[in-house]
Amino acid sequence: MVLKFTGSFTQQEAISEKAIEAAIAVMRHGRLHRYNVIHGETAETVLLEQEFAKSCGAKYCLAVASGGYALTTALRASGIEKDDIVLTNAFTLAPVPGAIHGAGGRPVFVEITKDLVLDLDDLKQKIQSTNAKFLMLSHMRGHLVDMDALIKITNNAGIKVIEDCAHTMGANWNGIPSGRSGVIGCFSTQTFKHINSGEGGFLITDDVEVMARATMLSGSYMLYESHLAGAPVEAFENIRYDTPNCSGRMDNLRAAILRPQLADLPIQAERWNKRYRALESGLNQFEDIRLTTRPSKEYFVASSFQFCLPKFTKKQIMTFVSGCEARGVQLKWFGASLPIGFTSRHDSWKYVDKQKLPKTDKILSVLLDMRIPLTFSMEDCDLICEIIKQEVKKVSLEKG
Question: Is residue 125 part of a domain?
């Protein structure tokens, strides 16, 4: 009998009853806008900002409409000027170069290693050759580079680091939470991230001026005093009239949905990692499959899984992906000639200067990716592993 997986790779868990009740309470009183409160009331958005800041150990937090908005706002609040070069990972997703371009910067990509993190040697070379002032570090697919080494490099070069933590909420490097090593950390609450409000995001920082500018950019209508996790009132004196309103606030409805999820994040993180480890164990040391190495200093929260087929040709990988798809296992291939869904890569973004990235291209040409929703059972993970191994073996035998 041919094994087949009948679950869904895109079906998230239902929103908890506690979160639903909180959302209904907001809908019943109708004050969805973060600044629409009655006397003595603290907005759900404000409470969420306080709780998220505390969870990360950050001084300040701003809840916004999306993770991409957080990235663009972070650059603007950090003082980016037109045509400033912003270094970023060659392996990332479209919102990252999109944010750089949207803020008026020019993305310059840094090569990655076989473990899907920034190549620190290439980073040093790009810093020297570009005189960049910014690094937008993408923790792509939840993989953390050696943050101690990276921050040493960027500090020595006077580079501002903005962390794209869309895939690393709850993660840490050597005990330091993701988003707390750079000047700013940006997070997403889009449906396929670690907490789910459909769309949404956060910006965290300890820099008072950055937070004041970010708050004004988000559209504070001079109501910044109500931001209890925001910059103090005096920080706005010199910037409140010359910082544009680029409205991108989070609303109280989404905040109400997110607060219970944030409280449960440590539990959910362990559930994700249990599934990741099951997949890792099932595919580890299987012939023709190469897995990424996870350093001991890295605590990740794995909502996706990646592996490579380094010995396979393009045609063989296409056959493998099709074979898995026919058996219910949805894999995304970053080596496809055209972008499909979220698999676009640096040569797909025509608004970015064309760049040569041979090391990254070689890695992406054999890279497979899949989501790990918490709707998967442990038995589901075992079944998926078995199907993948069978399809790899089938293609390998045909190759032989």
Answer: yes
Confidence label for 345 from pLDDT (cuts 50, 70 and 90)? confident
The phi-psi region of residue 285 (left if phi > 0; otherwise alpha if psi is between -120 and 50; otherwise beta) is left
Domain of 120, in residue numbers: 17-263
Q: Answer yes or no: are the C-beta atoms of 86 and 113 closer than 8 Å.
A: no
Write the pLDDT tens digit of every residue in 226-267. 999 999 999 999 999 999 999 999 999 999 999 999 999 999
Whether 98 maps to a domain, the answer reads yes
Length of the chain: 400
Whether 400 has a pLDDT exceeding 60, the answer reads no
Helix (H) / strand (E) element for 332: namely strand 332-333
Banded model confidence at residue 344, pLDDT cuts 50, 70, 90: confident
| Distance of alpha carbon 194 from alpha carbon 211, whole angstroms | 24
pLDDT per residue as tens digits for the range 272-312 = 999 999 999 999 989 999 999 999 999 999 999 999 999 99
Residue 368 near residue 321, CB atoms below 8 Å: yes
| Three-class secondary structure of residue 283 per DSSP | helix
In this structure, the answer to whether residues 129 and 246 fall within a common structural domain is yes
Does a structural domain hold residue 3? Answer: no
* Three-class SS state of 176: strand
Q: Which long-range contacts does 310-314 make (Cβ < 8 Å, 24+ apart)?
A: 310/366, 312/288, 312/366, 312/395, 312/399, 314/365
Cβ pair 230, 211 in contact under 8 A: yes
Q: Give tens-digit pLDDT for 377-396.
A: 999 999 999 999 999 999 99
DSSP string for 73-126? HHHHHTT--TT-EEEEESS--THHHHHHHHTT-EEEEE-B-TTSSB-HHHHHHH
Could you give the residue ranges of the DSSP H alpha helices within the chain?
Answer: 17-29, 44-56, 67-77, 95-102, 120-130, 147-157, 208-218, 252-263, 265-283, 314-326, 358-364, 378-399
Boundary-marking domain end, from 263, 280, 296 = 263
CATH number at residue 218: 3.40.640.10
Distance of CA 64 to the CA centre of its chain: 15
